[in-house]
Amino acid sequence: MQFQPIFPPHKRPILIAGPCSAETEEQVLATAHGLKNLQPDLFRAGIWKPRTRPGAFEGIGVPGLAWLQRVKEETGMKTTTEVANAQHVHECLQHGVDVLWIGARTTVNPFSVQEIADALAGTDIPVMVKNPVNPDYKLWVGAIERLYKAGLRRIAAIHRGFSTYGDSKYRNVPRWQMAIDLMEEFPGLEVICDISHICGRRDILAETAQKAYDLHFNGLMVEVHPEPDTAWSDAAQQITPVQFGQMTGALLQRSATSDDPDYLLKIENFRQQIDEFDEEIIHLIAQRMQMVREIGYVKKDKNIAIFQPERWRALADACRRRADKNELSREFIGLFLEAIHQEGINQQEKVMNQGVSTEVAAAGNLWMND
Ligand code: PEP
Ligand code: MN
Q1: Which of 14, 24, 300, 338 is deepest in the core (most CB within 10 A)?
Q2: Which residues line ligand 1 (CB under 6 A)?
């Protein structure tokens, strides 16, 4: 796919700012005037709001589109909002919204994405595609492909993190690698980081903005509200226009490398040590897997039930305690353990199923545990 840029080439970071939801005309205009001097590349505001549970504010709807037109007239900023169906697309096209975005809860559904793509065919309005709520890379790429097949070329991606259940400092865990994979696979695609929906809280926004900047995202999307605590949606993650200016003004531009010999020597030294650690880690994992296979043989021999939830719980608890003691995040250790566990299952499954027909083996695979 060959994309065309939506934003000024070489400008970094691209900035998209504005409230989670358009609430009232006054609130939208107050935010826009607060941002005017910073001239973000786009002014965002949700007009139709997909809410997780019913009863929350579900967006102001079509009247809010006229407020976006006023924002543009009074401040010169281009506008963007979320569309979730063909009707939203038609309303936005009629009201001169400059850029559309597809939300995370829509990207998961190919029927909805196709409906939007069909409604957009024949136009050349820019569209940004958020990642789906679940970490499914192909679904994200699939949504981009549907728009591309409808003839659109000005397409960008927005990384907003992934839903998770359990401990995390983030509202939506970033799984940065998935965005990095997207950048690598599609070098011409602009990728924006929506730090507000990743963080879900304002105290870690600045560090996450810097991280996204260091990871070479093209830009940031940030929820900005004149009185964040009173916001009708996502209050805990919104910041004021002044805070937005301070945060983006403080972003450090880091260079790719340095030719200082002292720096080069230190880096080389540390990298060598890291390579040695990696070798040790892989060796240890291989030894652990050998043990897992041994257990497989013993269980098979004695015809012992394989699923042992207490064992898995105890192991996970012990690892969490060790993670805390060693200043490793529980999130990281959780992902690491899951990967190790999965590989253990794969290895044990081979042992347990030796000489068993494939159908029976597949049924047995569900409940294996070391
Ligand atoms: C939003 O940007 O306000 C929004 C609803 O985001 P997401 O689709 O990422 O949840
Ligand atoms: Mn929001």
Answers
A1: 14
A2: 20, 46, 50, 103-105, 130, 160, 194, 197
